[in-house]
Amino acid sequence: MSNGKEKIAIIGAGLGGAVAGALLQHAGFDVNVYEQAPAFSRLGAGIHMGPNVLKIFERIGVDKKVIGISSTPSHWFSRDGITGEYTARVPLEGYGQTYCTVHRGDLQAIQCDALQPGTLHFGKKLARLDDSGTDVLIEFEDGTSIRADIVIGADGINSRVRETLLGQEKPNYSGWVGHRALISSDKLKKYDLTFEDCVKWWGPDRHMMVYYTTARRDEYYYVTGVPHPAWEFDSAFVDSSRDEMAAAFEGYHPIIQALIESTDGVTKWPLFNRNPLPLWSKGRLVLLGDACHPMKPHMAQGAAMAIEDAAMLTRCLQETGVNDFRTAFGLYETNRRDRATRVQSVSNANTFLLKQEDPAWVYGYDIYAAPLKSETAA
Predict the structure, then answer these.
(1) Which end of the chain is more exposed for a tag (fewer CB within 10 A), N or C?
(2) pLDDT given at position 131
(3) What b/e sequence results for 313-336 when a residue is b if at least 16 CB atoms lie within 10 Å of its CB, and e otherwise?
(4) pTM confidence score
């Protein structure tokens, strides 16, 4: 329903923002994406992309590319972190698409390549937004400015767009940190141990999620969740150490010890969250992903929720057109709030797939299958 004249600006080219841009462009909208970073690099982090996300990737023609560079585990194993006993063996097949674990930087590159040439702008840190009622003035810290008919805030947990809607409010430190490390698979060959494709090791008060990040299986990645009383640093993350990891997982299974022994570099990240927002949009501004509903990463569904948001927002704008953005934003929130809130709650509880259960409500979900619920019916 776009006439090619209304302009959409997306703030943030992370996993949700880039897919939102590609989806909206495929639907015929005039979209530009603005990212504060000067460029993206291949940072050492892995990510899960479940079948619920791959169904969305089909719409922008990148699902086969993502599958081609990913590890595609057949099961999610949950194991006791000390004894190694299996507490769950959850099949990941049969949900209408492939389950992928992949390097975040490799995935980001594919998503950005899906955007139309010249529509992704780096080095654009948001300084100010002014919703005049007829359009939005967007000013960047480099002194440039643009105008758009609507603005999508996909700029993460410290979203400046969210701040414009709701005022300044720091996210809540959750009392947890995550350690991240990428290990060359060659380092693991000396051990007479089996390093499974996708396994979560559970302790009484901590865990370690481990998986391959490439189709070649040459990188093995782990991310932890460990209680930590306070985040004492101003930076987004800090370097950790093999000694710190050994102390955090003392007495844990030999496979965990092998991973720690094989760790060259490891970083430590604070896990933040926010209380559910009272609104997802205001005027010509709308939020998605961590800008809207940040969650602990314990279901490996945080980025998936941002990408589902992007797909639903695109559906709603196709239904109404940009000129009727208020109806579109209301439909979007009506059709996303319950699912995003449920995933946020289960993620924060950190119980997902600890025991044998059916994850069809997560992985079997197809955002294009259900009819849109009207605001009045919600």
Answers:
(1) C
(2) 96
(3) bbbbbbebebeebebbbbbbbbbb
(4) 0.94
